[in-house]
From TrEMBL:
InterPro entries: HDACs, His_deacetylse_dom, His_deacetylse_dom_sf, Ureohydrolase_dom_sf
Disordered: annotated segments: 30-57, 555-588
Lineage, opening ranks: Eukaryota, Viridiplantae, Chlorophyta, core chlorophytes, Chlorophyceae
Biological process according to GO: epigenetic regulation of gene expression
Recorded GO CC terms: cytoplasm; histone deacetylase complex
Pfam families referenced in this protein's UniProt entry, alphabetically: Hist_deacetyl (PF00850)
Low complexity biased stretches: 47-57
Protein name stated in the entry: Histone deacetylase domain-containing protein
Domain Histone deacetylase, chain residue ranges per copy: 152-462
Bias-annotated ranges (Pro residues): 563-575
Any one Gene Ontology molecular-function term assigned to this protein's record: histone deacetylase activity
């Protein structure tokens, strides 16, 4: 098959950038001649070139990428090894999605809608749900995948799967709905710098120009346009992508989050949730990074304070640390930031969030991090953090509103998180927080479509007044003991402490204890619960010693392969008989 060459400017542009010696025009003139370069440039400007057809291996590539979680399977496999689903099986029911969009576009709920509920709860119609389907316009249109834009983890199908599931389960009709709005400029400037807003708008304009070019020409680099679109020439933009709708969708996500928080503070709804994208907790005051452009949780926190909230708690249970949210409020005593995340000794993205990061200036002690230093985090690990760190410190802080950066990439089967949190686990996290103060949930990460949609539904059911889902039998007994401990705290009154935090990994126990030791300098609750966790560690050590004692006793009679060898004693050598040359004998 004959392959068509790319335009000469693409080759020369790459060559000039690679060798870094001559400008593009000079290189064209020297290699091909001024006349040939002019002819090719005029032909390219006047004659439209058809879009290139898909390469022959495109279908083969499609068959190796999972639609549900974006994981790449081995060649010939029809089932995803990460999530266990057929690779090309669609997840989003388009009819349910269309019905959900139509319902959200209606101005008010009808009487028939109000009668339709999925299950009776105590908080029916007490949850404000914000969703605007225009957020799906933001997609990475240059990433290969089964379909255009699906190759990037942060894709429109994430919110589509959530809304279709909420419609199918009946949860959608139990919530007050809000269409969503763009964030006002002053709302964004309350959190971000003017330079970041200008950089996002400029990169989006360049993406519009690139999209117009791609309608008639090949994909490929084009002078400074691609660099600007990828943020290579801006210190305010890092690992994010742009398309013509990026700036609008980023403003829409931040504005919807702010409006839900304002409604909850004003009392028009007990709790709230916003199904929004792009996410926001990595966005710093002057940098867009980690799929995030504007920090939705930070904008919502400032909007809540403008509506009358005095103390705001931001709880981030995304598997990645919210470096942007932490940095924005690092010296603010009116906003407490708490996070449970994978840290892996600073080797997990973004590399921030150590337990020793507690704030600065007047905000010291108002940043609480529980970092996990290994993957495979389970329900028991997170429940221990919530029971002995998050809930006690949040109760002592006494927030007026809780804003949850609800990332579901710690769910089992997520391609990026590497953790094993169940849907029931997320429902218990939501129950713990919503019992303390009015709660607003904002969608952050979560890249397994089915797991993210299921966890979102479970959390919304809890906000509507239903009990959390059932955990495993032994773990359920631990999680149900959510009543505050008496003062002074007695380890004997906590069965989970007396069991040595059974089911919690050693690494998680170490992280929880470290967080309490650091925070005990600032919070009375941390000092009390530190004593409990240290008592649990003593029980764990005692049980391990009892388990290892028979093994140690049995191994005393055995020589360890690592023990030093005894010195060799030289053995006496037997004496060798001396050889005497015989005397020559005289002949006859």
């Amino acid at each position: 098959m004959q392959l068509r060459k790319l335009p000469i400017t693409t080759h020369t542009f790459l060559g000039a950038r690679r060798i870094g010696r001559m400008p593009t025009k000079s290189l064209i003139s020297r290699c091909w001649g001024q006349k040939e370069a002019t002819r090719r440039r005029q032909q390219r400007e006047t004659v439209p070139v058809a879009r290139a057809a898909a390469p022959p291996g495109a279908q083969e590539y499609q068959s190796r990428e999972c639609i549900n979680c974006n994981s790449t399977a081995f060649r010939g496999s029809k089932t995803c090894e990460n999530c266990g689903r057929p690779l090309l099986e669609e997840v989003v029911d388009q009819e349910l999605l269309a019905s959900a969009i139509e319902y959200m576009d209606q101005p008010e709920a009808s009487a028939a809608d109000k009668k339709t509920v999925s299950k009776k709860g105590d908080n029916t119609a007490g949850v404000l749900l914000a969703y605007d389907d225009r957020c799906r316009r933001h997609r990475d249109e240059r990433t290969l995948g089964p379909f255009l834009g699906r190759g990037h983890p942060e894709r429109p199908e994430r919110v589509a799967a959530i809304m279709a599931r909420l419609k199918e389960s009946g949860v959608l009709k139990r919530c007050k709905r809000y269409k969503g709005r763009e964030a006002k400029r002053e709302e964004l400037l309350a959190v971000h710098d003017e330079a970041l807003l200008a950089a996002v708008e400029q990169a989006t304009k360049v993406a519009v120009l690139a999209a117009e070019r791609d309608k008639t020409t090949w994909y490929g680099p084009l002078d400074a346009q691609l660099e600007a679109m990828e943020g290579k020439n801006s210190k305010h933009i890092q690992d994010v992508y742009f398309n013509p709708s990026t700036a609008f969708c980023a403003r829409l996500a931040a504005g919807s989050a702010a409006e839900v928080a304002r409604h909850v503070v004003s009392g028009s709804a007990r709790h709230g949730a916003a199904i929004i994208r792009p996410p926001g907790h990595h966005a710093e005051s002057s940098v867009a990074m980690g799929f995030c452009y504007y920090n939705n949780a930070a904008v919502a926190a400032r909007a809540a304070q403008a509506a009358g909230a005095q103390r705001v708690l931001i709880m981030d249970w995304d598997v990645h640390h919210g470096n942007g949210t932490q940095r924005i409020f690092y010296d603010d005593a009116t906003v407490m930031y708490m996070s449970t995340h994978r840290y892996d000794h600073s080797c997990f993205y973004p590399g921030t969030g150590d337990a020793t990061e507690t704030g600065s200036g007047p905000g010291v002690g108002f940043t609480v991090n529980v970092p996990w230093n290994s993957g495979g985090v389970r329900d028991a690990d997170m429940l221990a953090a919530f029971r002995y760190v998050i809930r006690p410190l949040a109760a002592e802080f006494r927030p007026d509103i809780i804003i949850v950066s609800a990332g579901f990439d710690a769910a089992e089967g997520d391609p990026l998180g590497g953790c094993r949190i169940s849907t029931a686990g997320f429902s218990h996290f939501a129950a713990t927080l919503s019992a303390l103060a009015p709660t607003v949930m904002l969608l952050e990460g979560g890249y397994n479509l089915i797991a993210t949609a299921a966890a979102t539904e479970a959390c919304l059911r809890v906000l509507l007044g239903e009990p959390p889902l059932q955990l495993q039998d032994r773990l359920q007994a631990r999680a149900s003991a959510t009543t505050p401990q008496p003062q002074p705290m007695d380890p004997a009154s906590d069965p989970w402490i007396m069991s040595g935090l059974e089911g919690v990994s050693d690494s998680a126990v170490e992280s929880v204890c470290l967080a309490l030791r650091v925070q005990s300098e600032f919070w009375e609750a941390a000092r009390n619960y530190k004593a409990l966790v240290e008592a649990a560690i003593a029980v764990r050590c005692q049980r391990k010693e009892q388990f290892l004692r028979p093994i140690i006793e049995a191994s005393k009679d055995m020589q360890s392969p690592l023990a030093p060898m005894p010195p060799k004693v030289p053995q006496p050598q037997p004496e060798q008989p001396s050889f005497t040359r015989p005397e020559p004998q005289a002949g006859p």
